[in-house]
Amino acid sequence: MAIKLIPPRAGFSPYYYGRGTYLGQFVNRSTRTDRAAVAKRVIAQWEREIERGRFAQPTGPTFLSAAVGYMKAGGDRRPMAKLIAHFGDKLLADIGQAEIDAAALAIFPDHSPATRNREVYTPVSSVLKHAGIEFKIRRPKGSRGRELTGWLWPEEAAKLFDAARAIDHEFSTLLIFLCYTGCRLSEALKLTCDNVRLAEAEAFAVKTKNGEPRRVFLPPVVVTELSNHPRGLSRPGEKVFRYTKSGRLYSLLEKAATNAGLSLPEREAFHLLRHTYATWMRRYAGADAQGLVATGAWKSAQSARRYAHTIVSEEAKRAALLPVAKSKSN
Predict the structure, then answer these.
(1) 173: closest CA among 152, 197, 189, 186?
(2) Do the Cβ atoms of 281 and 295 come closer than 8 Å?
(3) How far is the C-alpha of 44 from the C-alpha of 35, rounded, in Å?
(4) Distance from the Cα of residue 104 to its chain's centroid
(5) Which residues pair with 62 in a beta bridge?
(6) Which of 33, 242, 272, 274 could form a cystine bridge with 268, CB 3.0-4.6 A?
(7) What residues pair up with 91 in beta bridges, in sequence order?
(8) Are 138 and 97 in contact (CB under 8 A)?
(9) Who contacts 164 (Cβ-Cβ below 8 Å, separation ≥6)?
(10) Distance CA 172, CA 169 (A)
(11) From edge to edge, which strands make up the β-sheet containing 196-197?
(12) pLDDT at 220
């Protein structure tokens, strides 16, 4: 029997495959070309190699085995299920730029480039690197997304907190903590009870994204919330919040937002509360970019300047002094 030419599978690979048994040798591999004429020549070359006893069937780790190894080593499990369902036992040697591009479109056909980058390109790159395979993966255009500057008005935040409390008291406490401290979700989830000093209205974030520990001021509303923590804070060494960064936690936020009648901006999730903190600090507390940096939540004025648009500048308010051009009809 000859090796058959198998057309590309939409959403799986743009390349032709060769599949079948020739002189007792089973073949099922990519031709690495999307041109039928070239693929036929590749298959003919395979058959000649089989006749001469020189055909080498590719072997090696599969995406499934590599993904399992990556997760066992502590890699992010969250995006793996969809990727494993797509790639399965596909050899890592057969996964290149074209296959990754096809996977992103197949798994997330209606999503933004930034989502595809986060959910496909980045985790696939991590799996490949962990398996010792490195090549420069081209990210989709627009993968860096836009600067995240969405935020909540106070009445919107109140609705979100109330909806969260109806689901889980401790979850609403977490949201309030994030909103009034500017902490990142990862920083809040790593915070331990012995690093919270309610009497001094502060917490000590040992592990931050910047790699530098910092003191976090706890406004009265946060002190009150933590004082009424459903599990209390008399748990030395234990984490303040019982949650882990997972799909379930993000689902809780989506549920709370839906119940509150709010629509979360795409890709922002819990980071929306950090942006809300920064915006409120500018609008209501008068903090400028340098002031935000001084809180310790931002490392540079450049990263804090993105919130400049959230307030009307003093210069713009001078428009109230402009003369009124009255028409005869007035």
Answers:
(1) 189
(2) yes
(3) 14
(4) 15
(5) 91
(6) 272
(7) 62
(8) yes
(9) 171, 172, 175, 252, 253, 256
(10) 5
(11) 196-197, 202-205, 214-217
(12) 95
Regions of the chain where pLDDT drops below 50: 146-148, 312
Task: Extract the tokens encoding 96.
Answer: 């290149």
DSSP string, 185-244: HHHHHH-BGGGEEGGGTEEEESS-TTS--EEEE--HHHHHHHHT-TT-S--TTSBSS---
The kind and range of the H/E element at 81 are helix 80-87
Half-sphere exposure of 108 (CA within 13 A, CB side): 18
Q: Is the Cβ–Cβ distance between 227 and 201 less than 8 Å?
A: no
- Strand pairing category for 196-197 and 25-30: unpaired
Output the six-digit token pair for 243.
């949650």
CB 44 within 8 A of CB 57: no
Evaluate whether 192 touches 238 at the Cβ level (below 8 Å).
yes
Interval 9-64: pLDDT, tens: 766 677 888 888 888 888 888 888 889 999 999 999 999 988 888 887 767 788 99
Regarding pTM above 0.85, the answer is no
For 21, the enclosing helix (H) or strand (E) is strand 17-22
Kindly give, in sequence order, each residue whose CB lies less than 8 Å from that of residue 3, ignoring residues fewer than 6 positions away. 18, 19, 20, 21, 22, 27, 43, 46, 47
Residue 114, token pair as written in the block: 């930034």
Contacts of 237 (CB under 8 A, 6+ apart): 192, 193, 194
In angstroms, rounded to a whole number, what is the distance separating the alpha carbons of residues 95 and 30? Answer: 10
DSSP secondary structure of 140-195: PTTTT---------HHHHHHHHHHHHHH-HHHHHHHHHHHHH---HHHHHH-BGGG
